[in-house]
């Protein structure tokens, strides 16, 4: 076997060799303390809004940041902060992507939406996360249904994952354009992984 073939064989062996992996743990008492920052390569914030009663129009935000400080002795006091660049609205339809951020989200005057948690009520690996959402310059309390997917070793560090959903009324945040042709209720879904700093 020549040197090039040997190198190719070694590379293939590394790529396709079984990796040591164990399922994440949901035992928050064992999760390491510290600051956790979002892994943007494994996170998404998507939304759906009713379009003329025919279908749920789906979009996502391409740019956002998030992090929380965790203490296993007081997990319910973990403080989550999220910021979203509302100009990064993306639906796959160029016209909507150009018009929606300004016409519906007021991104020309308020290009950043924020969420700051205020309390967490847990039931096992699920819970309700309350906090203040600021969107289009308006701040309102919202509640998110959260599922803790677990934590574990990954990539030489500790990773933790969550899923969350909520429904907001855009009219409560000053977004009234094309109501009721474009729905008032906006469903948001968050899938997010964090890495311990």
User: What structural class do helix, strand and pairing data support?
Assistant: mainly beta
CATH class: Mainly Beta
> For the report, how would you describe the main beta sheet?
8 strands, antiparallel, barrel
Give the second-level CATH assignment, the architecture.
Beta Barrel
Helix segment tally: 2
In total, how many domains does the architecture comprise?
A: 1
CATH homologous superfamily heading: Lipid/polyisoprenoid-binding, YceI-like
Let me know the average pLDDT: 93
Give a count of the beta strands, DSSP E runs of length 2 or more.
10
What portion of the residues fall into strands of 2 or more residues? Answer: over 45%
Which strand order do you get reading across the main beta sheet?
Answer: 1-3-4-6-7-8-9-10
Poorly predicted runs: none
Task: Please explain how this structure is put together.
- The protein has two helices and ten strands; from the N terminus they run αβββββαβββββ.
- The mean pLDDT is 93.
- The chain has one domain: Lipocalin (Beta Barrel), CATH 2.40.128.110.
- The protein has 197 residues and is mainly beta.
- It is globular and about 60 Å long.
- An eight-stranded antiparallel beta barrel has the order 1-3-4-6-7-8-9-10.
What's the layout of helices and strands?
Blueprint: H1 3-16, E1 34-51, E2 55-61, E3 64-70, E4 79-85, E5 89-90, H2 94-103, E6 112-123, E7 126-135, E8 138-154, E9 157-169, E10 182-196
Antiparallel strand pairs: 1-2, 1-3, 1-10, 2-5, 3-4, 4-6, 6-7, 7-8, 8-9, 9-10
